[in-house]
Specification:
By secondary structure, this protein is α/β, with parallel strands linked by helices. The chain contains 2 helices and 7 strands. Helix content is about 20%, strand content about 35%. The strands form 2 sheets. It has a 4-stranded mixed sheet. The chain has a 3-stranded mixed sheet with strand order 1-6-7.
Length: about 120
């Protein structure tokens, strides 16, 4: 992947939801583990509420118009090893996701779509 290709991007619907969540919950972060609960869906937390460590990779600091600070996007290293050749697109779809993610009460959930880069 070249330096010009963003690792992670947001759909307009995801950016709108992040603006609403930021107004209510302070600075935000994503973590995508690929583990239990909601599978490989990205989960949104107040920044710092999910503790990252050596087993996580910071993929992006997302700029969202109307949000003062970047929204960080973390992924577990094991998940990154599988998805390293893709661009991740964070979207929003109807339905209830994980109870741990901030959007759960909204009746929608974040979803990661991917595109293979360089294919």
């Amino acid at each position: 992947m070249d330096d010009e290709t963003p690792r992670v991007e947001l759909t307009p619907a995801a950016a709108d939801l992040l603006r609403r969540l930021r107004a209510e919950h302070r600075p935000l972060m994503f973590h995508q583990s690929g583990g239990c609960c909601d599978g490989s869906a990205p989960m949104c937390f107040p920044e710092g509420e999910f503790r990252t460590g050596a087993s996580d990779v910071l993929l992006a600091e997302l700029s969202v118009e109307g949000v003062e600070e970047p929204v960080t996007f973390w992924m577990s290293r094991s998940q990154y090893d599988v998805w390293s050749h893709t661009r991740l697109i964070v979207d929003v779809v109807p339905g209830r996701g994980s109870g741990f993610s901030l959007e759960a009460p909204e009746g929608v959930r974040f979803l990661t779509r991917s595109r293979v880069v360089g294919a």
